[in-house]
Structures are given as structure tokens and as C-alpha cells.
Specification:
InterPro entries: Acyl_transf_3_dom, Nose-resist-to-fluoxetine_N, O2_lipid_transport_reg
Distance between the termini: 51 Å
Shape: globular
Transmembrane segments: 236-255, 304-325, 345-365, 385-407, 447-468, 475-496, 516-539, 551-571, 591-611, 632-651, 671-690
Domain Nose resistant-to-fluoxetine protein N-terminal: 44-225
Strand order of the largest sheet: 4-1-5
Protein name: Nose resistant-to-fluoxetine protein N-terminal domain-containing protein
Strand content: under 5%
Keywords: Membrane, Signal, Transmembrane, Transmembrane helix
Number of strands: 5
Number of helices: 29
Length: 698
């Protein structure tokens, strides 16, 4: 049996090393917009007429310029992106004989390394050590000495913008960075508002005196027009499915309320079929708890806290998708030890894998023998898949359709990638193979964990067979599975030479780190098998009173605290630029996650056997019951919802610890909600765009 398990893991590792991940088709730029709408609107002759009209109509022309290109705010502190005014641009329309004229919002990338053009709109004074403020800011008559000192200090920093843009020649003069400079690939991401009949080149030449013909190098990323989201098959399927579910919910809830509230009959006498979609009954079940002696109460709190940690980490990462005003501050924050509570969040996924392994063995071992497992193996798999399918399918369908139509913004192109992926590769998500097939184009990127969990459940009967045979066979099988997974993962990690932190990994290695290590079942399996060991241990002693002497108990809890603290702290040195320890990277990638599982597993075991003290009291509070039951739904749905919210941003955000924590949108205390809303809205960096959607807090 052990040899067979070893072969399975080594074959998986060999396939990853040799063949990589399977991509079924070449992948062009993803799009869920009406491309024909953009193409049909282009007309060079009409464009010249529209541009001439804008020159004669000062107010209308000013609207295009006001909604479009400008130097990014925060340019002096590293911000290289400006989003313009998306909604203003798309609302522009001409009058009278030019009623056809409409605003078109476009995003362009302008490399900072320009060999054939002079950057007249960047003052020459910016390249000098002393800044003549009257030239740079003519309306400013006084600048504080403190601010001037800070700016000069900023210019002298190694990571300052001055180093990004200029370097000294042999004669001591400052010049533009050449294309072969390490910083030569930096670019400005700018928005431009133009007539829909024009290309970006035609509009730029009109607005800025033939700037493209003078040598401006730029790339058009995308353009947007009103009503450019056509309805496709996914939209009609979503309308039918969600409409049917909504109708069943209304009917079921009406029956339930009529039976239980109006007629005041016993809820137990109502038809289970008729109340299956009832909000009234399902909410009552959500908050109804019944405990048995074999229930491990602390798992509810642990699962809820782990889920909160995941949401916190994703809230920080998704808030960065549109860029930040102060990227240098963000970079410095990531490198500080106090950022550990966010940068170490990925380890919590291994907590879920540990819990999955524990519950798998703990529940199966008490219900069936090995012959029963073999006879009902199809039901074993079917039960797992059906439990995951409804919410996962809901998230896929909502992302492919509903979410695409409920919001919009200058960054919506980023969300369109997810829409396109869900419309094209939905099947790989529902089949739980998205971490191996078309891994670069996942519909829901965070569901790689669900795929790993399902794949581990598929191979788990190889171990469960021996677990259900005898105690000796169980320990042999569990130990063999864990040791084999550790050996295979170590060899695989050594062969690839992954960095131990995604933040510290170089750009060229980042894709390999995520695709071949982070979402790879082979590398994530050890915590699952650690969980299976703890699950069998808990099952074996569930009716036994365990006595642990006080010195040993203090020692084990001290070791637990040391291991947890070390694992969390390791994220700090690993993400530093000077971290160069290839051998240690292999060791960390192979053993840090199972060691974390070992520590969390001990905590669960201690709490279950009465040695958890205040930790067990806290994790076993009834308040954790409902969040624990909703944790899977929260995991699947929170990530696309965060993208929906953040892709409607109208300006790059200002990075700080506070605003990056997602607001709940409501407060349980009516007294506090008003000042909290003021706190949130008074941190806004730009006026908001009024509409029904964005003004409803999520």
C-alpha cells in the first residue's frame, strides 16, 4: 500500500515537472463587451468633423478634456495611474446636427522611456535638485520649509520617483532613462475621453498638436462606450435559474408563513418539500443548534476566524487592483513586521485543509467499515460533490452574468476577465480541475482551494481503507501517506527552486510560484494528511478520558505558542529583498504548512479533551455557530463581490491599514451607524458618482 501511495505522489510530481499545466486553447485578450459596437463607431471622416466641432464649441471640448488625460495625482509619491472621469465621459453628447457625437472612454499606457519626444508637460525643474516653485506651481506663493525638506529627502531616497525617471550622464546632466534601464519598463496608465468616431491616435493629435506623429509611444488598452455589455446565453440562463429559485423561495416562504404564523400550526407538521426553499424555516435552522457529546465545539470558532482572516487578506489585495496613490508607502508597509497580520494570511488555507482531513476521518470512521466504504464509494464522492456544487455553481453563474450588469467603472475591464473566464471555462471550475486545466484562466481564482480539497478527497479512500481495517493498519497507512506526501513535495520543491514568499518572488518567477506551487495539490497535501492523523486520534480516544500532567501540558502549549509565532513571523524576513536562502526556501515550502497543521491540530485536540482552557471557551462560543455554517458560502462569494466593489473605483485609493478593512455596510447598533458612515465617507479621496448601485453599501 505504501509503495502504491508513493507512486501516486511521484507520478503527480513528475507530471507537473515535465508537462506543466494543460491549457486547452490559445488565449487572446478576454472580452465580454460588444467589440462590433466599437468598430462600427469608428469613422475617420466623421472624426475630423467631430474634432473640428469640439474646437469651435469650447464648452463641449472642455468636457472631453476635463474627463480625460492629465498627470496622475500623487505623481511625486510614485502614483503612475490616473482614471479620468469615466461616468462624465460616457455621458457627453453633442447637440443639434452633432447629436450623434458621444464620449468614448479609453485607457492608454504611455512608457516613461520615450526616445523621440520631449515631455513638455513635465516641468524641467522636476529634474533639478532645487525646485523653483513659482514655475512648478504658479499659484503657490509660499511653501513650508518642512514640506520642502521632506520632498528633497524623498528625492534622495533610493526608491524615489527621481530614480525611476532620470539618471545622470557622464557630464553630470540628468536625462531620460534608456530602454535598457532596469526601470525603463515603467509606464503611465492614463485615461482619455474622445469622440466615439475617433481612434485614440486621432484624438491625441487633435488635443495635443500632433503628439503621436511627433513620436509619442503609447499602447491603447481598451475603450468603453455606453451600453457595450451585450446579453449572451449566460445571461438568459442566469435569468431563468435565479428567477426560478426566487419564485420557489416566494412560494415556499408564503406557504410556511401561512402554515406556521397565520394558522399557527406546529412547524413539524408542515411538508418538508414545501418548506425546503422557505426563508423562514431555513433561517430558523441556521440559528438552531443541537450539540452531541461527540461534537468538537471549538471547530466553529476556528473555522469562523480562519474565514475572517481570508476575507481580510483578500480585501487588502483586491483594493490594490486599480493602483494606489502612494505605492511607495505600500511597498514599505509590506516590508514591515506589523504587516504580518495580512501578509501571513495565506497560511489560513492550510487550516481549512487540516479541518477537512480531521472531519473526514472523524466522521467516516464512526459510520462505516472498509467493506461498506468500498461498496458505497460512489456515494462517498457524490456526497462531497453535491455539498459543494450549489453555492459554487451560483458564484460561477453570477460572475458570468449578473455581476457583469450590476455595476461599472473605469476598472471594469479587470472584472471582465473573470466574466470571460467564467463564460468559457466554467466547466473546469465545476469539475474541480481548474488548478491543473487552464490554471491561468480560472473563473474564480480563489476556488483553487476547493479543487485541491476535492482532489484530496478523491484519493483519500486509499488511506481510509487502512484506517477502517485495524488500529495498526490505520497508523501505518496514515504515517505512510504523510511521509510520502512530504518526500514528494520536498523533491518537487527542490527541483523547481521556488521562493518561500510570493511577495519576495521575482516577477519572472511569480507565475511559476502560483501555478506550480501555491495551487498545486501535491504541495498542499501534507496539512490534509496531518488532519487525517488528528481525526483518527480524536476518533480513537473520543470515549476515553485523557489525563495529561500539568508540566507536560504547559510544555506542549509553550511549544504550540512557539511554533505558531515562528510560522507567522517567518513571513517577515522571507519577504525582504535581501532574503537569499535557496535551501531554506525548500525546507519552508515543504514543512512550514504541515508544521502549522501540527500546531493547530494540537490545539483542537486539547480543546476537545478539556485542556483548552480560555482558548476552548472562546472558540466554543455559540456566537460562532452561524458564521461557521456560512463560512463556505462566504469563502466562495466574497472574492467576486470584492472585485465588483473595487472595480467601480473612480480613482486610485490611498493605502493605509484602516480603509483597506472591508466595511460591513451596516452596524448592529443603530446608535453607532451614523458616525461610522461619516468615518468611512470622510476618508474618500474623490467625489463619488451618484447612482442607485454604488450608493447601496454591500
Amino acid at each position: 500500500m505504501m509503495n502504491f501511495i508513493i507512486q501516486v505522489f511521484f507520478v503527480c510530481g513528475l507530471c507537473n515537472c515535465v508537462f506543466g499545466y494543460l491549457e486547452l486553447e490559445s488565449y487572446n485578450k478576454p472580452n465580454a463587451f460588444d467589440l462590433d459596437l466599437y468598430e462600427n463607431a469608428l469613422d475617420s471622416k466623421l472624426c475630423q468633423s467631430d474634432l473640428a466641432y469640439l474646437q469651435s464649441n469650447t464648452y463641449l471640448g472642455a468636457q472631453f478634456l476635463d474627463a480625460g488625460i492629465r498627470l496622475p495625482r500623487g505623481f511625486l509619491i510614485g502614483n503612475l495611474a490616473d482614471l479620468g472621469n469615466y461616468h462624465q465621459c460616457l455621458s457627453i453628447r453633442g447637440e443639434d446636427e452633432h447629436d450623434h457625437l458621444r464620449g468614448k472612454y479609453c485607457s492608454i499606457t504611455v512608457p516613461l522611456s520615450q526616445e523621440n519626444i520631449q515631455w513638455q508637460w513635465i516641468p524641467d525643474a522636476l529634474a533639478k535638485n532645487d525646485l523653483p516653485w513659482a514655475t512648478l506651481f504658479p499659484n503657490v506663493t509660499h511653501v513650508s520649509e518642512n514640506w520642502l525638506r521632506k520632498l528633497k529627502d524623498f528625492q534622495n531616497r533610493q526608491s524615489s520617483l527621481r530614480r525611476f525617471l532620470w539618471q545622470k550622464t557622464d557630464s553630470g546632466e540628468l536625462r531620460r532613462l534608456p530602454p535598457d534601464s532596469p526601470m525603463g519598463d515603467l509606464s503611465l496608465n492614463l485615461a482619455i475621453c474622445i469622440p466615439k468616431s475617433c481612434t485614440t491616435g486621432e484624438a491625441l493629435d487633435s488635443f495635443f498638436s500632433n503628439i503621436t506623429t511627433s513620436g509619442l509611444d503609447y499602447t491603447e488598452n481598451y475603450c468603453r462606450l455606453p451600453n457595450d455589455k451585450p446579453f449572451v446565453a449566460a445571461d438568459y440562463v442566469a435569468f431563468a435559474v435565479f428567477g426560478l429559485v426566487g419564485l420557489l423561495t416566494i412560494i415556499s416562504t408564503s406557504y410556511d408563513v401561512h402554515h406556521t404564523v397565520i394558522r399557527k400550526k406546529d412547524p413539524k407538521l408542515s411538508s418538508p418539500l414545501y418548506t425546503s426553499f422557505s426563508i423562514f424555516t431555513n433561517c430558523r435552522r441556521l440559528f438552531s443548534y443541537s450539540s452531541t457529546p461527540k461534537t468538537i465545539e471549538c471547530l466553529d470558532g476556528l473555522r469562523s476566524i480562519a474565514m475572517t482572516w481570508v476575507v481580510l487578506g483578500h480585501s487588502f489585495s483586491t483594493n490594490l487592483i486599480g493602483g494606489v496613490v502612494n505605492p511607495l508607502d505600500n511597498l514599505e508597509w509590506v516590508k514591515q513586521p506589523y504587516s504580518i497580520y495580512v501578509t501571513s494570511a495565506p497560511i489560513t488555507v492550510d487550516t481549512f485543509l487540516l479541518l477537512s482531513g480531521i472531519l473526514l476521518v472523524y466522521t467516516v470512521a464512526g459510520k462505516m467499515g472498509r467493506e461498506t466504504l468500498l461498496k458505497n464509494i460512489h456515494l462517498f464522492y457524490l456526497n462531497r460533490l453535491l455539498r459543494l456544487f450549489p453555492i459554487l455553481a451560483t458564484a460561477v453563474l453570477a460572475t458570468a452574468s449578473v455581476f457583469h450588469h450590476v455595476a461599472d467603472g473605469p476598472l471594469w475591464q479587470l472584472f471582465v476577465r473573470k466574466v470571460y473566464n467564467c463564460r468559457t471555462y466554467w466547466w473546469s471550475t465545476l469539475l474541480h480541475v481548474q488548478n491543473y486545466m487552464n490554471a491561468s484562466y480560472m473563473c474564480l481564482g480563489h476556488t483553487w482551494y476547493i479543487a485541491v480539497d476535492v482532489q484530496l478527497h478523491i484519493i483519500s479512500p486509499l488511506v481510509l481503507y487502512w484506517v477502517l481495517t485495524s488500529k495498526r493498519a490505520a497508523w501505518y497507512g496514515l504515517t505512510a501517506a504523510l511521509v510520502t506526501s512530504l518526500i514528494a513535495a520536498t523533491i518537487f520543491n527542490a527541483a523547481w527552486g521556488f521562493k518561500s514568499s510570493a511577495i519576495q518572488a521575482s516577477i519572472e518567477n511569480d507565475l511559476n510560484y502560483n501555478r506550480y506551487y501555491y495551487i498545486n495539490t501535491l504541495c498542499r497535501a501534507p496539512p490534509f494528511f496531518v488532519g487525517m492523523i488528528y481525526g483518527y486520534l480524536l476518533y480513537s480516544v473520543q470515549d476515553t478520558q485523557i489525563r495529561i500532567k500539568r508540566p507536560i501540558l504547559l510544555l506542549t502549549w509553550s511549544l504550540w505558542f512557539g511554533v505558531v509565532s515562528t510560522v507567522l513571523y517567518l513571513t517577515y524576513p522571507m519577504q525582504q529583498a535581501e532574503w537569499e536562502h535557496p535551501v531554506l526556501d525548500v525546507f519552508i515550502n515543504s514543512f512550514m504548512r504541515p508544521v502549522w497543521g501540527l500546531a493547530i491540530g494540537w490545539m483542537i485536540f486539547a480543546c476537545a479533551k478539556g485542556y483548552g482552557g480560555p482558548i476552548n471557551w472562546f472558540l466554543s462560543l455559540r456566537a460562532w455557530k452561524a458564521p461557521s455554517r456560512l463560512s463556505y458560502a462566504a469563502y466562495v462569494l466574497h472574492y467576486p463581490l470584492l472585485f465588483v466593489v473595487n472595480c467601480t473605483a473612480l480613482t486610485p485609493v490611498y493605502f493605509s491599514d484602516g480603509p483597506f478593512v472591508p466595511s460591513t455596510g451596516s452596524c448592529p447598533c443603530p446608535v453607532l451607524h451614523y458616525p461610522l458612515l461619516f468615518v468611512v465617507n470622510c476618508t474618500a479621496l474623490a467625489p463619488v458618482y451618484f447612482s442607485d448601485g454604488p450608493f447601496v453599501s454591500l
